[in-house]
Structures are given as C-alpha cells and as structure tokens.
Specification:
12 strands, 16 helices, D-Maltodextrin-Binding Protein, domain 2, 2 domains, membrane, five-stranded mixed sheet, cell inner membrane, globular
Length: 325
C-alpha cells in the first residue's frame, strides 16, 4: 500500500521539480553573469575596476564570474564562443567582431583617448618610425589600428610586433622593439623608468576618439533587458564613485597596477572619462571606416555605415537609466 502511494506521488514530484527548473531563478535569487575585462586596464575603465573591487554587482544581487584578458581580441574570442555575457574593452575589436556577424552590442563608454606611443631616444618625429618595429597589443586592438593611422598619415611602413602590454617597456629597454603603443599607464611607466620618450598620444592621432566601451550580447539585451539595465545602473554608480572619490580611485589603481601614484596621476592626464558615458558616434564611424580600409572588416559586411553603427551601439538602456536617476 505504501509503495503504491509512493508510486502515485513520484510523478507529481518530478513534474514539480521540472517546473521549478524551467522557471529559472526565483525572486531574490542570485543571478549569475560572466564579466570580462582587460589586464591592467584600470585607468581606462575605472568604473569596472570599482565595481569589481567594491563588489557592487554582488551587492546588487549578482553572482559574478570575473575573467581577465590580455587584449580585447582575446576577450571577443570568448564572447563569440558564449563564455562572456558582459565586457569592457576597446571599441575596435568590438566593431571587428560585429563586422564578422557576431551580435555584440555597445551599451556605454568607458573612456576616450588614453594611449601613447613611446620610442627610443633616436626617434625624434613620427616619420622616423619608417621601417621601425612598434609593439602593439595585437590585431584587432585600437592601438594596433592607430599605428596604421600614423603609417598612412606619414606615408611610411611600420612593422607591428604583437606582445603583452606589461612586457612592452622591457622590450623597448632591451632594444627588441623601436617603440610601442599601449594604454595608460604603461607608456608613462616606461618614461618614468627612463626607457624612452613619448612621441604621440592618441589625442594627437585621433582627437576624442572612442576607446574602451561596455558591451553585452544582443540576445541578452532582447531577452533580459532588466538584467542589462541593472548592470548598467551599477556601472553608472561606479562611474559616479570614481568622480567623487578621485584620490581613493588613484590609490586603488596604484595598488592594482603596482605603480607609483605619481605615475598614475600623470598617466590619467592622457585619458578622458566623459560623463554621462555616451560614445563618440562620429569617432566610431571613423574607426570603422579605417578598419574597412585596412581590411580588418570586410567591405561587403557593412552595407550602410549608419545602420552598422546603430546596430553595434544601442544607448537606449543608458538613456533609461540616466532618466530614472
């Protein structure tokens, strides 16, 4: 009799458990997200650094798997394979990935400008870079694209040598490259160590250019805009904290990078953090056109530039978050 009763109850329990699984996280239950960011990129994306270090996303009810990458191209590889939900990286690898048909969407800006070219003492002007080797973070990075811009402007050829940004100052000091381009604070650190001098900043190459951005998947934006809005709201709070706690932020950057505070403060002079964090649309267009010219985006993949930019940069949720502040 007991066995018969158990047999009759068992299917009901199974169905109930299945229904629970299909319903997803219950109200108040922790939501899991995977967030990618670049190594030593605290000066370009202080909002992301602050969110991570102060566990602001966790306080908002998320369980976050933070993942660090050497360059934006590597982050986009994991994004494309479905291993990243949100990320902070340069706009250039994002647009290259979008040009390949991946549904990646820019939500907000992290910074504009912020990179520099540092060279050995014998190089005095940009034209001296002709046939010289310049270290870059790799194909698909905005820094690599800016080296191409310098080469086109000066009508010269520059040899690209791809490497880790943290290795660049040492490679320059050893003479393995003639110069390098990297995001702050690495150029300032190299100059501080006496390894070379700064010849161009990204402001000289492309004034007010869009650099790092915050991205997500188009599918998440469509299916779960509430989560996207919640993440973006926390990001805005972190950006505000950076603006109102500047000295504490600098100390945090120094601690995370292992560099002196004076180096960090000098490096920050080359970086802009516009707020509200809207992207520079004209800069995105210009960069996309340069990527087509250099062959990093196939011309046939962009039928209309305005439509391409509208697809890759969708600030509607940022508008909403700022309106509700």
């Amino acid at each position: 009799m007991k066995r018969a009763a158990m047999r009759s109850v068992f299917p009901v329990v199974v169905v109930f458990l299945l229904l629970l699984g299909l319903q997803g996280p219950a109200s108040g239950q922790t939501k899991e997200i995977r967030f990618g960011y670049l190594v030593a990129d605290q000066l370009h994306s202080p909002g992301v650094m602050i969110m991570k270090e102060k566990q602001m996303l966790e306080a908002a009810g998320f369980k976050v798997a933070w993942q660090e990458f050497l360059a934006g191209a590597y982050l986009m590889q994991d994004f494309t394979s479905g291993q990243i939900d949100f990320g902070s990286l340069g706009a250039v690898p994002v647009m290259i990935t979008r040009g390949q048909g991946v549904d990646v969407v820019i939500l907000a800006s992290a910074n504009s400008e912020g990179s520099s070219i540092v060279v050995k003492d014998s190089i005095k002007v940009p034209k001296d870079l002709a046939d010289k080797s310049v270290g870059t973070p790799g194909i698909g990075s905005i820094q690599d694209a800016m080296v191409d811009m310098v080469a086109r402007k000066e009508n010269i050829k520059i040899r690209h040598k791809h490497m880790k940004v943290s290795d660049m100052p040492l490679f320059l000091q050893k003479g393995e490259v003639d110069g390098f381009i990297a995001w702050a604070p690495h150029p300032t650190r190299a100059v501080d160590l006496g390894y070379g001098h700064q010849i161009l900043t990204s402001k000289d190459i492309l004034p007010d250019h869009q650099c790092c951005v915050i991205v997500t998947k188009g599918s998440i934006l469509k299916k779960d805009p509430e989560t996207v809005a919640k993440v973006l709201k926390v990001y805005l709070e972190a950006c505000e904290w950076f603006r109102t706690h500047y000295d504490e932020s600098v100390a945090m950057m120094a601690q995370k990078t292992g560099m002196k505070e004076e180096v960090i403060r000098t490096a920050l002079q080359t970086v802009k953090h516009p707020f509200p964090p809207y992207c520079n649309v004209e800069s995105l267009k210009l960069q996309a056109e340069g990527l087509i010219t250099s062959g990093k985006i196939q011309k046939d993949s962009i039928k209309n530039m305005d439509d391409f930019i509208k697809a890759v940069y969708q600030p509607a949720i940022l508008d909403e978050c700022l309106t509700k502040k």
